[in-house]
Amino acid sequence: MCPLSDEALLDWALAPAEADPAVDRHLGECPSCRTRSQAVLREVADLRAKLAAEPDRRRHHRDLARLLGRIGEIDEDERVVRGWLSRDAMDPEALTLLADLTARRGERDRAVRTLASVVEVQPGDKAAHERMARLYERLGRLEDACPHRVTLAALSPSDEAAAAAATRCESTGEGPPAEEVRGELVATATFEGGADVDLAIVLRDGTRVSWMGGKRNVRVGEATSVQGERLAIGFLPNGSYTIEVESIDPQFNAGSSVGPTSSIRSSCTWIATRIGIRRSACIMR
pTM of this prediction? Predict the structure, then answer.
């Protein structure tokens, strides 16, 4: 199995002379990675061709969008997702992908608003309400989390835990206990300079997991800290996972019309094994 991320492999396949020296050295010694780099290149070309041939097929938009997200082609990914939404403005999966792309640009508040629209489209979806409740609780916005907790209790009248969470937030205004950040893959980052930075993990299917959720078994610590953040996922198969770090522009998220002025992105590949997590490569951008 090649330990490098598909993003690093695609960069090497497109422009080997400009690739990171560490990646170039590894590719020179790893036949499986060279084979995988060409496979990624063909996969991108094939999905682009399918979408061009059948632009109204939802599946083609979805498959290309997820692949582009996985390899870090954010601008093209957003164009594909917006093309998808131009055909179906209420598609929950497309809205979720757009929220993730917005978060990857450091536009936290806009990402939250976009993800919240999924609940408006699917008001009876318990998973969507749970995701929004946890998201707001991680941000410390308990007054925004509480309506989702109340809705979850109404949607599941026999769920005692949901009823207790709704009662707690309505009667005391308190949130849940701090999450215990542990899992099969645990990423921890520390920051200097007082910047608000978000940590995310991109899975092999293109799903982005962060303080915004993305999978049911996500645990997050210090989501709004300017000193560090912890992110954990449980029940992962063996494979490589890309770690991303995005800086949050406080001006933009305070309502400024100016977009993020800085971006920090780290693409690191980790391999989950039965004995833990081993870092195998890290490409800084």
Answer: 0.79
Over the stretch 201-215, which tens digit does the pLDDT of each residue have? 888 778 888 889 888
Nearest residue to 201 (alpha-carbon basis) of 191, 190, 187: 187
CB 116 within 8 A of CB 132: yes
Sheet with 196-202: list strands edge to edge: 208-209, 196-202, 240-248, 266-273, 276-284
Cβ-contact 198, 186 below 8 angstroms:
no
Phi and psi, residue 32, nearest 5°: -65, -35
Q: Spell out the domains of the chain, with CATH numbers in brackets.
A: 6-104 (1.25.40.10), 123-172 (no CATH), 185-284 (no CATH)
- Continuous H helices in 15-57: 21-29, 31-53
Q: Which residues make Cβ contacts (< 8 Å) with residue 102, sequence separation at least 6?
A: 110, 111, 114
Residue 58 scores a pLDDT above 90: yes
**Three-class SS of residue 189?**
strand
What spatial distance separates the first Cα and last Cα of the chain, rounded to whole Å? 24
Cβ burial, residue 92 (10 Å; 0-12/13-18/19+): middle
Contacts of residue 263, Cβ cutoff 8 Å, sequence gap at least 6 = 105, 106, 246, 247
* Beta partners for residue 45, in sequence order: none
Residue 77 to residue 97: CA distance in whole angstroms: 9
Grouping H, G, I as helix, E, B as strand and the rest as coil, residue 30 is coil
Q: 258 CB contacts (<8 Å, ≥6 apart)?
A: 249, 251, 252
